[in-house]
Design goal:
InterPro entries: NA-bd_OB-fold. The protein is mainly β and 152 residues long. It has 2 helices and 10 strands, in the order βββαβββββββα. It has one domain: OB fold (Dihydrolipoamide Acetyltransferase, E2P), CATH 2.40.50.140. The chain starts with a strand and ends in a 20-residue tail after the last helix.
Length: 152
């Protein structure tokens, strides 16, 4: 079991007990304002980015996911190495859409569960070039100039 934070855990042996009707597609999840469950294939896992949260070093990964309706990024907090593997299919519960740099992507929540799926997903990668162009830089640099005027 992997600990994400004191409230989040991942159990790769957990089996999602839900009907197929309760699993939304990526396309529908990106339009929903509610938390959702999805079944997705992992296409790529970006390197972790560290950040400080009240003196505690945390990390997040951008995970490129896909299903039959398209692709998007999933932001996963404090992902341990080797928990998710590319080209495997996972059932992920209680994810939410997130507005990130003026684009909707998906994000884990405090209640998210991730489990290896018994199904296989062949992702539709027709929109992958658009998704790959999303600006994933969370910290922006603001440059200001201070001009001094001489008083005469």
């Amino acid at each position: 079991m992997q600990s994400w934070s004191k409230h989040q855990t991942i159990n790769v042996d957990f089996q999602l007990q839900t009907t197929l009707n309760e699993i939304l597609s990526i396309k529908d999840s990106l339009m929903s304002i509610e938390s959702n469950s999805i079944r997705v294939s992992i296409i790529d896992i970006r390197p972790a980015e560290n950040f400080d949260n009240d003196g505690v070093t945390r990390s997040y990964n951008f995970v490129l996911i896909g299903d039959e309706t398209g692709t998007t990024f999933l932001v996963v907090l404090d992902l341990a190495p080797e928990v998710l593997k590319t080209e495997y299919t996972y059932d992920i519960t209680k994810i939410r859409r997130k507005n990130f740099n003026e684009t909707y992507i998906l994000s884990t929540t405090i209640d998210t569960h991730i489990s290896l799926s018994k199904s296989t997903i062949n992702p539709n990668i027709d929109d992958i070039s658009k998704i790959m162009n999303i600006d994933l830089v969370d910290v922006k640099t603001i440059i200001t100039a201070v001009m001094e005027f001489e008083q005469q």
